[in-house]
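Dear colleagues,

As part of the handover before I leave the project, I'm documenting each prediction I ran so the next person doesn't have to rerun anything. This entry is a single chain, and its sequence is reproduced below.
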Amino acid sequence: MSKLQCSMYRLKYSTHALACLLLCLSILISAPVQATKVNSKFVQIPASSLSYSLRQIAIAYQVSYSSDPTLLINKESPTVSGSYTLSQALKLLLDNTTLSFKIKNNGFVIYKSPSQNTIKLIEEITVKGIRYSHARSRNLKHSTKAISEAISAQDITDIPNTNLAEALQYIPGVAITREAGEGRQVSIRGSYPDFSLVTLNDMPVLANNDSPMDSRVQKQRDRSFDFNILPAELFKQIQVFKSYSSDQIAGGISGTMALKTISPLDKKGFNFVITPEIGYNDYVGSGSKRYSTLLSNTWGNWGALASVAYTSRESLEQGANTFRWRNIAIDNADLSSLSKIQSENLAQGNYIIPRGNRYSVWQGTQQRFGTNLSLEYKNSTSHIDVDVLSGFLKGNRLESHLYPRGDQSTPVIKEQTAITSIKTNKDNELVYAHYVDARVATESRVQKINTSYHQGQFSLGKELNKQWDVHAILGIQQSKYEIPYSNKIYTQGVSDVTVDYTHDPFYADINYSQNLQDISMWDLYHGDLEYYQSDNKYLFAKIDLQHRFNDTFSMKFGGDWISFTNKMSNLQKNDIFFNEISNSPQKLIELPETLITPQNKHKNQRWLSINTNDALALYKIVPFNIKQNGASYIRKYEHIKENSQGVYTLLALERDKWEVDFGLRYQIDSITTSTQDLSTLSYDLWLPSLNSTLFIDEHWRFRFGASKNYSKPLLSSLSFADSDNNPDNIEYIFNPNLKPYISYNTDLSLEGDLSGHSSFDLSLYYKNLNDYIVTAQAPLPHPIKADNDKIAVWQSNAETAYQWGIELNLNYLIPNSYWGINLQSTYNEGKVTYYNSNDGLALFKKNLPFLSKITASSMIFYDSPNLNFKLGAIFRGRYLVRAGGLISDENETGFMPTTYWDASVNYNFTKKWKLKLSAFNLSNEQERQYSDSSLRAYNSTTSGRTFYLGLSYQY
């Protein structure tokens, strides 16, 4: 009998046994107790005007209300403090007045007593704003038994953001990475972005983009969802689950980010919203455009919706970077102007020298387009939803780099260059040098990028009877990231060069004696061509059944099936030397002027860039299709296929002061990779979970969670045997016994609702990470032996790690005012041993990848009925990205601390019209990437300040 068949038999009988156990438990629970009053909410409203108090009631219960404004003039209301249903709270407010109320589906109506037959509805008040949004998010958090955080549609659209990633960064424990000034990847509790599972309308999804920068890993292929692909305007809710429950899709050991698109029945009747915006970036100087529109209507139980969002923008990042630092022996240059000690140290390679000191400009144009089409039906017992979501991110990139590109990427031209002056620091690093007759070079790169995202799904919810509910989902999701061409051209010349790190260790002052825009000093040198494509596909099916035994006890069980496919193709044709094509050295001055463009965008230097594709075409090289340039290109192809099946059962018990969920999931995975022909991994897991809540009183609750979860091996781990730049004595092999990452999680949370809708949360968590995957030497004997007595290195579950943290969140609304503040801070601690990919030996024990010890955000806001204002700051501490890579100069690399400032103003000058102003990166923060554990400069960039002005109309 095969391993898979054995696993299925174990699954069958274990599930039957567990169901019998849960049924016995339900019989043992005899006397029913009073259920938690889920419709009651704690409210505290001081004695005030009746109109103000009604608005606070609407905020607390997340509803709108209608009234004749003249009925509320000069009416006062008493203090309301306690836990009430909506009806009870309204009765207290309207006591001793001549007014009555009627509760409807979307809210309540205030009218004059007793003539209910002549209700005069003059104005419908749709309560929104920061306080309303906070109340919605708070109630969503409270209604979920697993520990989570949430933001609602109002937050998503009104918090300053250009995409989904930036909408998430004010959530405690969430940090983002940025690209060209925009948020891109999201990290939960300082973990790998790959360890976060992303679901969209309850099904797992994946879409990748990448960075134009080699230092940030271009052509990055991973399990992390790139949030800059889809517009934020398509979504109504994002919930971040930090603790795990067995009824959730498994696979995210750091947490799950659940995205929800807008639904037609979220708001009854005909709705139309359009928001045009124009933007300005002080580096680009040209305008960007954002448009979003929503059209929906309902007909009884039916609803249909179409929403569209479009963004067009230009971006520019500029900065200074190196090829990392290295001990280099410079014995082929004139050192006669230096002291004897300096000359000897340079010649013997005793100084650590920065290589390839570059000034760089990354320019880009980008169009982001997203659509959501939804058809929904809902009655008292049934709910049907059909959603189709599409997104496109397209753009063109231009890069221009100016740098010394001589011997070993220093400015030295052998037997020609003289070094006349140097300075070193206490760490023996060469922080200043003046080179005479040195090499200077440029690199001009052009790229086209296309990302597409498509998702379609059908969901059905049905209440079969008073005891049974069923919910089912069928879905498909496809995404494709393509670089149709990525072409480079290099030029070179000669100039005196000064490289100076003494003023700023992360931003060199680099000066040249020549006029770098003098065309006569440059030669056309060589070029590179590249094509890249990565595709992802998900097929998904899930069914859940729930049985309610009584008011306090219910059982939920179900299963899911996931098929995931990832394909990657990469073609390269490098070192095309133009003098070999034309049989003569290529002087730039001899070529058409249309091939050359002044590069004036960098703040420190000006030089010349090449119109890369035109120059390639001049030499009969096809720039747009690498395959048309002969068969001498290098091809790399990878294909990964994964199948996952899981079944679970969940027992829920609710009493007056506490509630608890206990669940158990059984998971079977099979992974096939094309590395070394076809290799297959398979494993099965039991994943238990426990989530409980103790209601201390109507203001405070205590939550506890304990669970086991897993994350599949990184895609790079599954293709590890195909690593490039292999050392001569190393052979990389595939590990046929590789297992997933395992996490044992403990979560504690204290949540308090303070007076006036303020709140305070304190959370603690601990994760024990087993089977942590690292690069290690393969033990001998092993199934696959390295050839020619080489050292065999593979990916192995050779490490354990830990992680713990504390999260604080305070949302304080200043009494008797429209002002409030939001403060959140997280402290993370977690370490793992890193290994050297060149030999599989241990390097050091350091912080987990992407873990910032401290992240924090603060926001001050003003929220009146017609005006709201926000000013926020987001801090992220230093974090390590990777360590022990194939590059000998880089035992680790990461990013230094950053603080970003954003602001927004929204003014409702009529009931339907709103003026919006947003500002991003007000401090023009510098992203500083370091190389080596000594925190040496690697890549430092800024992207400029961005402003958006918009107008929103809502019918």
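The longest strand covers residues 430-463. The chain has a mean pLDDT of 86.

All the best with the project,
I.
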